[in-house]
Design goal:
This protein is α/β, with parallel strands linked by helices and 478 residues long. The protein has helices at 16-31, 51-65, 73-80, 96-102, 120-129, 149-162, 178-189, 219-244, 253-266, 289-292, 393-397, 407-417, 426-445, 461-468, and strands at 6-11, 40-45, 83-87, 108-113, 138-141, 168-170, 202-210, 275-280, 303-308, 320-325, 332-339, 357-363, 367-375, 384-392, 451-453. It contains 14 helices and 15 strands. It binds 6-O-phosphono-beta-D-glucopyranose (BG6). 6-O-phosphono-beta-D-glucopyranose (BG6) binds at residues 143, 173, 211, 230. Residues 9-182 form the Glucose-6-phosphate dehydrogenase NAD-binding domain.
């Protein structure tokens, strides 16, 4: 279904994110027929180039990052006709008149701030003084949204001077992932799970986001952030919220975000014994973390594992184990909801030791499987085995029905539709930093040294111990 006609201005339109994600994503939406005739995308950046040169740049970006679909030359030509470019001086006056002349007032307007947060204020102000933005315009901002509570508050304050919260779309691209949205469908669209979704039936939850890539190329940014700021404060926190939140009264932006906020506010501070930070060593296929970031004395973590608790009736006593890291054994992200053992088993010995696990796979191979215990087929007597009830979406629905849509393109279409449900509200981001800040301050004050781990492994040994001490273990990273 096509969205309404729109003008989308991408500040930072020549940057990495625009070329890798935003424009190839928009091209796919164009090909799927979702971009209406007359929709326009206007790149705006410092470089002095013509609209034709910009189209050329984007054609190359789509060819490089757009996947198979970029082979469609006619489609690409059609898409490029919707593109325009304005050289702009974010801190000065250059280019603003030209932009004002191009952006229409009678269609949906969206302004994507794909620039350093230090420019947010300048852009927001100039959009108003040049009478480009209006009270209906939407603005899209990216992480990092601050690096602590104070800086996040300052950014929220800057944006609030010019835009109402209902106009601000803070992207966390994890919320655009298919499985993440499906999590809400599964929890709240079935009678099956919700009655069991509490401390009576669940033993613990594990959230793993493992990556095989290192930080090469982004060292300067990453070394100042680390896994906690780069991944936990935002992506893992959002996953945790969707798993743990109470059912919202409806699937609407504020109803959902109110419930997520309650989860973040109910998170207990994490004791230092329940946090393991790690840094990867060099290996045959790559340099060490310290070499990657060119800082031989770095104490920044490229891996973190922790045990969290949510202080409310539903989750009292159910630990949430989170872990994420770079240069790990596999690229595998999943949430495992591990059910309790049976209170009493009618079976004996090993046959009594089976448990249910709902594994929600974000990537690769998006889907869910529910581990259930059945009798091993055959004449061998009553022997029990665990088998997955597999709900791999591609198998269940047929490949053709799952559109190749990346998180970004889904979220951008939501911006045009004016649906904020999958975007973070200002108070959510601040609450997340409020929980994160003391943990970081804690290890800084202790001069905590990250544990080493072998690149290509499942992380430092201490992360295994974090679970073993509790009589549990991490699921294997495949
Ligand atoms: C980004 C982080 O937000 O998410 C990166 O800054 C990380 O460090 C990336 O690699 C992971 O995203 P995805 O979609 O590949 O899991």
């Amino acid at each position: 279904i096509p969205v309404e006609e729109f003008d989308l201005v991408i500040f930072g339109g020549t940057g990495d994110l625009a070329r890798r994600k935003i424009l190839p994503g928009l091209f796919r939406r164009y090909r799927s027929g979702q971009m209406p005739e007359g929709a326009r995308i206007i790149g705006a950046a410092r470089s002095d180039m013509s609209a034709d040169e910009y189209r050329q740049m984007i054609a190359e970006a789509v060819a490089e990052f757009g996947g198979e679909e970029s082979a469609d030359k006619d489609g690409l030509d059609g898409f490029l006709r919707n593109l325009d470019y304005v050289p702009i001086d974010a801190k000065g006056t250059g280019g603003w008149d030209a932009l004002a002349a191009k952006v229409r007032q009678d269609v949906v307007q969206a302004f994507y701030f794909s620039v350093a947060p230090s420019l947010f204020g300048d852009l927001a102000e100039r959009l108003h003084t040049n009478r480009i933005a209006n009270s209906e315009s939407r603005i899209v901002v990216e992480k990092p949204f601050g690096r602590d509570l104070e800086s996040a508050r300052a950014l929220n304050g800057t944006l609030a001077e010019h835009f109402d919260e209902s106009q601000i779309y803070r992207i966390d691209h994890y919320l655009g992932k298919e499985t993440v949205q499906n999590l809400m469908a599964v929890r709240f669209g079935n009678v099956l799970f919700e009655p069991l979704w509490n401390n009576h039936y669940l033993d613990h939850i594990q959230i793993t986001v493992a990556e095989t890539v290192g930080v090469g190329g982004r060292g300067a940014y990453y070394d100042k952030s680390g896994a906690m700021r780069d991944m936990v404060q935002n992506h893992l926190m959002q996953l945790l919220c969707l798993i743990a939140m109470e059912p919202p009264s409806k699937f609407g932006a504020d109803a959902v975000r109110d419930e997520k906020l309650k989860v973040i506010r109910a998170l207990e501070p994490v004791d230092s014994h329940h946090i393991v930070r790690g840094q990867y060593d060099e290996s045959s296929d790559g340099p060490s973390y310290r070499e990657d970031v060119e800082n031989p004395r770095s104490f920044t973590e490229s891996f973190i594992a922790m045990r969290c608790h949510i202080s409310n009736w539903r989750w009292a006593g159910v630990p949430f184990y989170l872990r994420t890291g770079k240069r790990m054994k596999g690229r595998s992200s999943e949430i495992a909801v591990v059910f309790k053992d049976l209170g009493h088993s009618i079976f004996e010995g090993d046959e009594a030791r089976h448990r249910n696990i709902l594994a929600i796979r974000l990537q690769p191979n998006e889907g869910m499987d529910l581990q259930v215990t059945i009798k091993e087929p055959g004449p061998g007597g009553m022997r029990l085995v665990d088998v997955p009830l597999d709900m791999t979406f591609a198998d269940a629905l047929g490949d053709h029905e799952i559109e190749e849509a990346d998180a970004y393109e889904r979220l951008i279409m939501d911006v045009i539709r004016g649906n904020q449900t999958l975007f973070m509200r200002g108070d959510e981001v601040e609450a997340a930093w409020q929980w994160t800040d003391p943990l970081i301050a804690g290890w800084e004050a202790r001069n905590d040294v990250p544990k080493h781990y072998e690149a290509g492994s499942a992380g430092p040994e201490d992360a295994m111990m974090l679970m073993h001490r509790d009589g549990r273990r991490w699921r294997e990273i495949k």
